[in-house]
Amino acid sequence: MAQALLSIQILPKLKQGDTDVIPYVDRAIGIIKESGVPYRVGPMETTMEGDLDTLLDIVKKMNAEMFELGSPSVLSQIKLSVDGGGNASMARLLQKYPDGK
């Protein structure tokens, strides 16, 4: 499958009694980390790089884990860039901005 960049913002609905979404988000980022794909956490979303099928499987795991943690529903906002030539790369896109400025 093609190389891709996938950015995701995951917004689980909190279960009754929960007031903090951060533990849910931390677990979602942990799933990305455990997958071994290159990723970058930003203030509003996390971007992953890799095979499209692999990235979509990670998204499925993230959503499933939110349900396991007790979230009754999940909203996942995704941006996807697919490159059939295998040139999808965070490093290439960010080379002009090495220090994030």
From TrEMBL:
Pfam families: Thiamine_BP
Residues covered by the Thiamine-binding protein domain: 7-96
Database matches in Gene3D superfamilies: 3.30.70.930
Cellular component per GO, a single term: cytosol
Family per similarity comment: Belongs to the UPF0045 family.
Name of the protein this chain belongs to: Thiamine-binding protein
